[in-house]
Design brief:
The complex is a heterodimer of chains A (283) and B (308).
Chain A lengths: L17 H15 L1 H4 L18 E3 L2 E3 L10 H37 L1 H15 L3 H12 L3 H28 L2 H8 L4 H37 L11 H10 L5 H29 L5
Antiparallel strand pairs in A: 1-2
Chain B lengths: L1 H26 L6 H4 L6 H10 L6 H13 L13 H36 L4 H14 L3 H15 L12 H30 L2 H8 L4 H39 L4 H10 L3 H29 L3 H5 L2
The chains are: A mainly alpha (283), B mainly alpha (308).
Amino acid sequence: MSAPAPSLPRRRFPLKRWWPIAILAVFVLTAICAPLLAPYDPNAQNLVGRLKPPGTASRSFHYWLGSDELGRDLLSRIIYGTRVSLLVAVLSVLLSGAFGTALGLIAGYRRGWVEIAVMRIADVFLSIPAVLLAIITVAVLGPSLVNVVLVLALTRWPRYARVAHAQTLATAGMAYVENAVLSGGGNARILFRHILPNIAGTLIVVATLEFGLMVLFEAGLSFLGLGVQPPTASWGSMLSTGRNYVATAWWVATLPGLCLFALVLTVNLTGDAVRDRLDPHFR
Amino acid sequence: MVGFLLQRAGQAFVTIFGVATLIFFVQRLTGDPTYLLVPETATQADIEALRHALGFDRPLIVQYLGFLADLARFDLGQSVVQRVPVVDIIASRLPYTLMLAGGALTVACGIGIPVGILLALFRDSAAAKAAAGFVLAAQSMPTFWSGILLILLFAVTLGWLPPSSTGGFSHLIMPSIALGLLSMATFARITRAALIEEFTRDYVRTARARGVGPVRILLRHVAKNAAIPVITVAALEISNLLAGAVIVETVFAWPGLGQVTVQAILARDFLVVQGVVMLGALVTIGLNLLSDFLYSVVDPRIALGGGR
């Protein structure tokens, strides 16, 4: 490591970095307020108005973004689909993050056979391609929203465990931690009050990167019919039905895909901003 | 060097063993794996018969040892639906997936590496800024959406390429692009980072001071060193491409392993799914080992315990 530059002013979070977070907030608000924003019930069918292009009206419906193969309003389904995407991503990141971090912390602090066992098991999970592990587990458990969350957590915890382990190893040898040990701090206190706050920044960076991936995974599983089950609106399953009508009704697949792309892009940009702010290694 | 590789190979073996164990237990997450293998219309007598035929009524430890013994003989069992060995099904579909992954890797390296060079060397040019936007977009693009957009543009609107299924070279173009875009972004980022790091080294400064031209510095001095991380990433990206093929093959009705997996899940043909997952893990472990090997060839310090 080179010597730090003399008295670099601590950079504020630049204003232009805020816009991805603002757009992300719009997605979150859309998900929370879905019943207020959606013009129609996302599952209300209108078989007379099947596959109507954007901007047409049929019976009591006015399809701003067109209708799907059962005459359901695409705009309402996209708005409700935001809920599924964000809910699955938030829950699976929290679950895998908490589990992986706890194991990584213990492995890095206890060392010995605990460390070997945890890190070997993490290696095993990481050597099965995540998509395949998710597929085989859903095939066993059966598809549902809860199972998708469980499967994603099961698949992704080793990412956090590895980072938490490496960071704990680096932190546990520091003087202030040894000081805490000498002062008679208990193991739990040292782990959660002294080590965890120090490594939290890096873990949050990993979590934001994982968040975008989880959104993509949920959509991918739903696309394959292994995610949230119909009639619940999910962007992935909308894309999958839209794939069948791509020659005649472009909007059914294109528009949910655009939302998915926009959400992942915003999450990735937010992740970059958070990383620049929290993780000194990437500056 | 040999010791280092032996140690890595030993670790890989332990990991394969762990993967087999994990899959064995995932299979039993809901209790009795027989239910994964019978159609929903099966009677209780059918279920009993199949349970006995497959040995699922034996003690768990006996089943586990039997499972490992079968794997060691590359026996992945028989497809309950098609009544053919799973190994045969995989062997008949594997060439298609390899073709697709090869096409995608060509797209990923062919675009990603030049874009990475552009990003590193001409950082402030308008072209580099546009390329950075392209890389960021590709990174956030779900393969099934880019696949559908490609079909919409080149098959439906322009009519240049066939929308799906297999045939000649023209059928391979769109699936390869859809699958390769995400890896392209990875290659671009790694190439950029590797080049920027190498350009700060002392040997570059020395070469410059000796009056060596910028092109010669790039080709003769920097390229070789910057290639190390790119090669390692290539090995890891191949396993990502194989896994990503599951979704892309569904979009384009491409008759590879991915399609067979999805069909097997819908038909409740669990042993086929399990075989593909086992293969995916084996390939990943093998590629990791290969990248360790390549790494230690190009950078002998690693095998001597210099860490990584």
